[in-house]
Amino acid sequence: MELQRKIFNLKNEQEFEKVALEVYSLQSKKKSVYNEYIQHLNIPIPTCLKEIPFLPISFFKTHDIVSSTAKVDVAFKSSGTNGQRSIHLISDLKMYIKAFNLGYDEIIGYPENQVILALLPNYQEQGESSLIYMVDHLIKRTNNKLSGYFLSNFEDLIQAYNNAISQGKDVVIFGVSYALLDLTELNPDLSKARIIETGGMKGRRKELTKQELHSALKKGLNTDFISSEYGMTELLSQAYSIDRGIFKASPTMRVLIREVNDPFNYVEEGKTGGINVIDLANINSCSFISTQDLGRIVPEGFELMGRFDNSDIRGCNLLIQ
Q: Strands 253-258 and 273-279: what pairing?
C-alpha cells in the first residue's frame, strides 16, 4: 500500500503533516468508532495537524477500534492493573514490527550490537502484551545467547550483564519499575548499561514520581542515567527519554499538547497540558489519540508531567507525578 510506504519514509515535518492528513482522510471515511466520533463533532475537514480531532484513549476499553476490514492478527491487551483492560486489535503485525524497529534503531541503537536483558515479570505472567512482543523481536535481533528474560533471578541478570560487557557489547536492560527497585537491593554496578524503565508498580510498591524513581534507581544500580520508554497498548510507535527526562519520538509518532480544559485548543511550547499522540503506524486502528497523560513540548522533544486527576493508572509505563 502506497500510504504505508510513505509512513516509513518520512523526511521532514512537512511530509509528516501531509501523510498524517492523508491517514486522517482514510480513517475518517471508514465505518468505525472514530468515524462516528468525528460525525458527532461536526467539524470541517482539517488542513493542519492541530485541526485533526483526537479520539479519547478510553474508547479502547469499551469499543473495537479498527479502520480496516482485514482479519485481526492479534489482540494486544493492557496490563489492567486497575480496572478494565484496553484492547488494541492488530490487523497487520508487520506495521508494528516496522514501527518499533524504526524507533528503537534511531533512538536507542541497533540490537545487533547489543545484549538485551529484560526484567518484565508481570508482562510475561499476564500475556497478550505488546511490550513483550516488541522485546521478543529485539532480543532475537541481538542473536546473542546472553540476551533474554529474567523473572526474579537477579544474580543471573547481573552475571549476563558482566559477561556481555566482557564481550565488548552494549547492554540494554528493559525493566518494570518495581522489579528494578527490587534489583537495587543487591546494589549491583550496572554503570555501563542503558537501563530503560517501562514504568508501573503494578500494585507491588508505593507509587513514586519519576524523579523519585530515577533517583532511587541511579543510586541503587550505580549509574548516572535512567531512560524511560513512552509506549502503550493503544500505540504501535514509542518514544524514549535519552537525557534529562526528555523524550524523543519515533519517526512515525508526534506529540501535541492540548489545553487541559479545552481539548480542541493547544498550549504554547513549554506549557503543560494533555498529551495528544499522532501514531501513523496505527493506520488500521486510529492514528489520533487523546491520552490521559500530562506533558509539555521542549526544544529537544517532550517531557511527561504526570496524569490527569481521577484517571486510572495505566499499567504500561507512566508513574503518577
A: antiparallel
β-strands 114-119, 170-175 pairing: parallel
Between CA 76 and CA 218, with CA 301 as vertex, the angle to 5 degrees is 80
| pLDDT tens string 123-170 | 766 668 999 999 999 999 999 999 999 988 999 999 999 999 999 999
Q: In sequence order, which residues have a C-beta less than 8 Å from that of residue 179 and are 6 or more positions away?
A: 119, 120, 121, 122, 152
Amino acid letter, 224? D
CA distances from 289 to 55, 56, 243, 263, 321 (A): 5, 6, 26, 12, 21
Please, which residues bridge with residue 151 across strands?
Answer: none
How far is CA 242 from each of CA 83, 174, 286, 312, 318, rounded to the nearest angstrom?
Answer: 31, 14, 27, 27, 16
Q: Does domain 97-230 have CATH number 3.40.50?
A: yes
pTM score over 0.90: yes
Which grid coordinates are listed for 247? 523524550
Which sequence spans correspond to the domains of the chain?
Answer: 97-230
C-alpha pair distances (Å), 171 with each of 115, 138, 164, 238: 5, 12, 7, 20
